[in-house]
Amino acid sequence: MIHSLFLINCSGDIFLEKHWKSVVSQSVCDYFFEAQEKAIDVENVPPVISTPHHYLISIYRDKIFFVSVIQSEVPPLFVIEFLHRVADTFQDYFGECSETAIKDNVVIVYELLEEMLDNGFPLATESNILKELIKPPTILRSVVNSITGSSNVGDTLPTGQLSNIPWRRAGVKYTNNEAYFDVVEEIDAIIDKSGSTVFAEIQGVIDSCIKLSGMPDLSLSFMNPRLLDDVSFHPCIRFKRWESERVLSFIPPDGNFRLISYRVSSQNLVAIPVYVKHMISFKENSSSGRFDVTIGPKQNMGKTVESVVMTVHMPKAVLNMNLTATQGSYTFDPVTKVLTWDVGKITPQKLPNLKGLVNLQSGAPKPEENPSLNIQFKIQQLAISGLKVNRLDMYGEKYKPFKGVKYITKAGKFQVRT
Amino acid sequence: HGCHPQPWSGRLGAEKKTKNGSKWLKMENGNFFAPVWYRHDDLKEMLDSNKDSLKLEAMKRIVAMIARGKNASDLFPAVVKNVACKNIEVKKLVYVYLVRYAEEQQDLALLSISTFQRGLKDPNQLIRASALRVLSSIRVPIIVPIMMLAIKEAASDMSPYVRKTAAHAIPKLYSLDSDQKDQLIEVIEKLLADKTTLVAGSVVMAFEEVCPERIDLIHKNYRKLCNLLIDVEEWGQVVIINMLTRYARTQFLSPNQNVSAEAASLAKRKPYVMDPDHRLLLRNTKPLLQSRNAAVVMAVAQLYFHLAPKAEVGVIAKALVRLLRSHRSVQYVVLQNVATMSIKRRGMFEPYLKSFYIRSTDPTQIKILKLEVLTNLANETNISTILREFQTYIRSMDKDFVAATIQAIGRCATNIGKVRDTCLNGLVQLLSNRDELVVAESVVVIKKLLQMQPAQHSEIIKHMAKLTDNIQVPMARASILWLIGEYCEHVPKIAPDVLRKMAKSFTNEEDIVKLQVINLAAKLYLTNSKQSKLLTQYVLNLAKYDQNYDIRDRARFIRQLIVPTEKSGALNKYAKKLFLAQKPAPILESSFKDRDHFQLGSLSHLLNAKAVGYQELPDWPDEAPDPSVRNVEVRGAPQGAGCMGGQGGVSSQGLQRASEGSSVNPFSLNPAVTPPPPQPIPSSSIISTSLVTDLEGLTLTDTSLTPAVSVPHALPGMSRDPCPSWGLQVGGSASHTPAPRPRQLLSPAFGAVRTYELLHRMAGEGLSVEYCFSRRPFPGDPHMVAVHIQISNNTDAEVKSLRVSEPKLLSGMRIQEFPEIERLAPGDTANVVMGIDFCDSTQAANFQLCTHTRHFYVSIQPPVGELMAPVFMSENEFKKEQGKLTGMSEITEKLTLPEKCRSDHAIVQQVTSAANVGRVPCGADNEYRFAAKTMTSGSLVLITLEQREGAVAQLTVNSEKMVIGTMLVKDIIQALAQ
């Protein structure tokens, strides 16, 4: 299926290659470079490229292109999903999935790739299994290894490979047994010129960090599970239990993982926590325009809206901007034409405002469109959908674990049209 | 010290020296750059050292070189020496190196093969598996037979992980040598029958790569695959679902039959009833829409799209919309598929219309795909919302996107008559847009719309005629010119004037514009020759000397048609008809129309072209093929693994996985659904009555560890019975009636089957239990010996909940109990099968047989001959294997054959009845060969019987397992001596 993999950085250097079948020459990447050139923007490189003898399927993650070479029919999502899993694994092992991290750990990367794919077909992609086969690098371990000559590579088959719960490794032991759940909700919205909501939905995830000894069997229940419109599960969750009782029952993997993702989409349920007042105009036959934006809180359930950042892609004709912010600071990049306003916390007493003049290229026609405003924000200790965890029970083990739930709401793809 | 000294290392060393010498000379001759060997000398030294840490360091540097794409092939001899290194990380890195360069250095690569062959026999399953992985990854054609053998062996390994690796190795071997196809199909067939989830995905992948056309191999495994699906790992799920989609298309009828067309004949035809197996597939895949893996969700979505009744397809929309929140590349692929689906099944995505709204931050390719979906979803009720949304898009800074939006508006206008005028007006307004691209695109779209009703829109045509002064985009100019020419009657005054202007600028126009100028001239000449005759002549003359031959040709052709001359032929009369014929309005349709003839989710669908290796999605059959091919004969299977009866009806028991804790037992994955119906056990022989009386005195109480009524093989006279049988309708005391032996062969080894007593009628208080070794593979675990047990209730009360409990086993031994028998009526007999892994020893397996009232201690002790299963090999293979098993592993004994045991038939008969072995063909006629493998460890057992003059013969047994060998010699001699 997957024939070869090339990792390419933004300046077009192939810094890693791995072949699972016969070697494919690096020159196959020329087709990719060609497409990349044509696309101008990295975001627009087609994920699937057809070449005379191969197909190239690629993803772009953390400034790296993962380009895989395919020789025959295969579901493209299969490859894409796998490549993302590879990037996730690097992230998991090295803390970041960057060119430097990969280059510094090239041997581990190679060992991982060797285990993850056999003859182009995925073999072991569960993080718990991989970690038993190849231990992640730590400073202590690398020192010890260099002295004792012991290795990072396990020599027994990970228990997960054979059991019917491949996501959990056996023999987990902790002195402090803890289970943390982060309920993270993101609001995706499009707000139109007049301030009314064109589209809004909540995308939620529950990320877990579970450090429990032995084989704990957990069940997590919600106060209001019917809120969840569409849910996707980690394989550990027993689907039947959810279907019948709306309880998440599972034997968790060890460590960090995403338990579920969900969506709350009926529109009237979605509270929009901020509003934006805007006045952006470009004068005809003049090389200037006006920019005036105010952000205020709305329906925030008594919580503070913080870490507010606004980014705007200004039209090409904009040369510079002379603005004053009543709160926070702004930057304008005249090359990319991106205006960023780091607002910080919103206090209802004094609404943050950014106002001033826009300098346009003289002689250029007045821009047709007013730019959209992209807003980011965070609200701590609140799940905007109202989802609440009721209780967490543990079976199968005798100790008493420490449990914690944290809620947070963020802006997802939150866009205000002007 | 970590490495085995290799016999050939010395020779290589010598070779290196001479090489060094010659290269050194070269360098002295003026080669300034250090040759490759020189650069890597330090690495070679490190590899040759006896410190593991140095070797590891060297291998790490070498792997880093490979990763960067640098050539490290010259290090091959130095690296390959370390293939047997004890340090596991060094070994693994050597494997990485070997797989990378073996193809280039085939001869040297062969030196490593023996290490892997040794690894294949290692007791550690990870080492067996990785040896097979590397061996099968070395692309050296000469080792094809070795690979084949290794795969075959691994396919019946006790570890499912090794079997999975075997499945992975199949496509590797196939790509190396496609002549092995037939043999590989046999292995695939065998692995398809495997019941562990670990193997299922990998073997289906092998099936898809090697023999996707052999749909017949799937029949018997279909229901099992459906039921295992939920527990298979994600990647396997994708492959299985895609394969089952194709399978279902060949085996079931379409659930969406065309009702209207066949309304008349409907009465005659049987109403459509969905095959329960079809339903099973739909039901068992549905929960996977909730998978976190986008590829799995997509696979289920395409399965529903291609297989589900119309009313049920809707469920996939929600899941697909969820995927839109994922990474850009996932979005891209999903949107392509949604675009195709939304043409056929618009209703399904309508509730999610707003999820396809476009943000200014979306990349252009995503914007355009979303636009495509929005256009497909447009209908009379939502068009006003969509058009309002489009209005926002038209003002975008992304001009490619704006152009696509204008096209989309055009498509909405053609499809929905109600909004045609609104759209047209909107587009006309765009004609005064500042951006030329926008104007040009609008012109092109307006042209197409006007063609639908030109008469009402002469104003627009006039407006557009004026644009020729300003607009420079060739396509737009060409469109305007074509419009004016086509509808010149509607703009009689303007048209000649436009032609005049165009004649002036003709030489500077683009080719497509020139062609349209000629067209315009021709049409005007035909309708209004007075005003345009000279202009036309002028244009045609210019065109005659144009650089482009298309234009020259066109001019020549048109001149002949329209300008009447003496020579001009009959066509001249029809010139007007030719040029001014009513032209059908173009249909603006989606480029995704009919793309669903490709299987959705496939690469071919995405590219809209058949990719290499694409398997066509077959059309539904008109008549359903025989559904009974999927029926699985239920042997007394353990816990109902894979027995789903004809109902197709295992309620989707999946997703209750994980409840079983860390159990490694493959059976626990597949909880029983229906208890397997009692099946008649193949007949077998019965113990002579005399023996029964002998043992009657024994009571079976608490002396659990003494083999109670186990009947050792040494009891003579038992197999003497020439036609032994187990009466099938055993009941009461009638059980001892000898009956003729049934004809069907009972086991691959064709031996007569003996029966042993487990619990005598007297000791069991009316319950009598007998068992025999059926010599059939035990379903679900190749390492277990299948023991058929026949239980007869000779009491006059019902016996309830018969089951096995408290097995007392030596370490390593395992028992797979038979499913509990709930009730056994008086006089009835039940047959069940249990599996015992004896760990290649003749130690008895002790356990209790429980009823609702009593416990009986019983034990089963296998004759040594039952601890093995036949293997089939060629004479050469036999000799080769025998050559490896000499010395301690060889046991030879002389014997004298009795009178009646000298014929071929008798000898074979006696040997195969004493041991479960397979006959190996033999060239010499006074020699007999047999081969088998022990059940647990898979060690070979080779038997040779050489008949010398007359009665004298020599028996040789070769086996690693010396104890087994010795016992076997004894047993065979005893069998032959009778």
- Terminal CA distance of chain B: 56 Å
| CATH class descriptor name of the domain at 40-230 in chain B | Mainly Alpha
Runs of chain A in which pLDDT lies below 50 for 5 or more consecutive residues are none
Count of alpha/pi helices of chain B: 39
Label the structural class of chain B.
alpha+beta
The assigned structural class of chain A equals: alpha+beta
Helix content of chain A: 10-25%
**CATH topology title of the largest domain in chain A:** Beta-Lactamase
Total number of strands of chain A: 23
Our estimate of the beta-strand percent of chain B is 5-15%
Number of H/I helices of chain A: 8
What is the residue-mean pLDDT of chain A, rounded to a whole number? 88
Hey, roughly how much beta strand do the residues of chain A contain? 35-45%
Q: Largest beta sheet of chain A: what is the strand line-up? A: 11-13-9-8-23-21-16-19-18
Gross morphology of chain B is elongated
Write up what this structure looks like:
The complex is a heterodimer of chains A (418) and B (978). With 418 residues, chain A is an alpha+beta fold. Chain A has 8 helices and 23 strands. With 978 residues, chain B is α+β, with helices and mostly antiparallel strands. Helix content of chain B is 45%, strand content 10%. In chain B, the strands form 3 sheets. In chain B, strands 10, 11, 12, 13, 14 and 15 form a 6-stranded antiparallel beta sheet that branches. A 5-stranded antiparallel beta sheet of chain B has the order 1-2-3-7-5, with no helix packed on it. In chain B, a hairpin with a 7-residue loop joins β1 (755-759) and β2 (767-777). In chain B, 46% of the residues are buried. Classes of the chains: A alpha+beta (418), B alpha+beta (978). The interface between A and B is large, with 108 and 114 residues. Chain B: Its main location: membrane. Chain B: Residues 643-683 are annotated as: Disordered.
